[in-house]
Amino acid sequence: MTRSRFPVSLLCYLILVGGCVLAVFPYLLTLLTAFKGPGQLFATAPWEPGLPPSTAAFERLFASGFGGYLLSTVLVTAGITAGQLVFAVLAGYAFARLSFPGRDALFWVYLSTLMVPAVVTMIPLYLMMQKLGLVDTWAGLMLPTILGTPYAIFLLRQFFRTIPADLEDAARIDGAGRIRTLFSIVLPLSKPILVTVTTLAVVANWNSFLWPLIITSSEDKRLLSVGIALFKGEIGVDYNAVMAGSLIALAPLLVLFVFFQRFVVRSVAVTGLK
């Protein structure tokens, strides 16, 4: 029986190893290319490290104003994430606990917007920002997503519904209002889903490319992803510097996921998602 299962197990492991190599190789390529010197990029195979390692690509990158892109991205990501978290918590709690006419219908209509590709609403959003005079402004960059996203509200609503209503009833008997109950009872019990929503918001806004590319044109409002895509050397695309920028952009997200992955898995399991 064991011998008959061995070929199947071996095949499964080979497929898993192959998938792992395909998934990890782009990150390895980014790391190796970022530390190659100008003459080492085409003189070595992609999977060969440059010897000795060189930081010239990082020096050229920051000399071109990359530090400003990084700072702008941090500030915009922090601002949008904070706004999404606040408004998504309020909306998720309202949909989970408050009773008002058309609550469920409104929730499912709002949730159905997840089926609409973002590129479909890009032009209408741009025209709205243009009419409001918000093109190439920080407000125009942040406004479309700062008020929350359907997915974040859905996750929070599902999690809040798992918290026993008796706890909130007991708080109201003691004289606590809705806001006090939310901040003193519900949110302390919702740390896993709050971490998950925060993590997803940071990743989405940190990697945002198309909307910042369309709505902004000034150098001082250029974000990380746009700056990397538009980075050029003296005679064309500087691949070493592009990979160095990609490595810097990638590192915080990997650290974020490593530290908070257990909260993400736990919250998704509790909300019933697969």
UniProtKB/TrEMBL annotation:
<keyword id="KW-1003">Cell membrane</keyword>
<feature type="transmembrane region" description="Helical">
    <location>
        <begin position="239"/>
        <end position="260"/>
    </location>
</feature>
<feature type="transmembrane region" description="Helical">
    <location>
        <begin position="107"/>
        <end position="129"/>
    </location>
</feature>
<protein>
    <submittedName>
        <fullName>Carbohydrate ABC transporter membrane protein 2 (CUT1 family)</fullName>
    </submittedName>
</protein>
<feature type="transmembrane region" description="Helical">
    <location>
        <begin position="69"/>
        <end position="95"/>
    </location>
</feature>
<feature type="transmembrane region" description="Helical">
    <location>
        <begin position="141"/>
        <end position="160"/>
    </location>
</feature>
<keyword id="KW-0813">Transport</keyword>
<feature type="transmembrane region" description="Helical">
    <location>
        <begin position="12"/>
        <end position="35"/>
    </location>
</feature>
<keyword id="KW-0812">Transmembrane</keyword>
<feature type="domain" description="ABC transmembrane type-1">
    <location>
        <begin position="70"/>
        <end position="260"/>
    </location>
</feature>
<comment type="similarity">
    <text>Belongs to the binding-protein-dependent transport system permease family.</text>
</comment>
<dbReference type="Pfam" id="PF00528">
    <property type="entry name" value="BPD_transp_1"/>
</dbReference>
<dbReference type="InterPro" id="IPR035906">
    <property type="entry name" value="MetI-like_sf"/>
</dbReference>
<feature type="transmembrane region" description="Helical">
    <location>
        <begin position="181"/>
        <end position="204"/>
    </location>
</feature>
<dbReference type="GO" id="GO:0055085">
    <property type="term" value="P:transmembrane transport"/>
</dbReference>
<dbReference type="GO" id="GO:0005886">
    <property type="term" value="C:plasma membrane"/>
</dbReference>
<keyword id="KW-0472">Membrane</keyword>
<keyword id="KW-1133">Transmembrane helix</keyword>
<dbReference type="InterPro" id="IPR000515">
    <property type="entry name" value="MetI-like"/>
</dbReference>
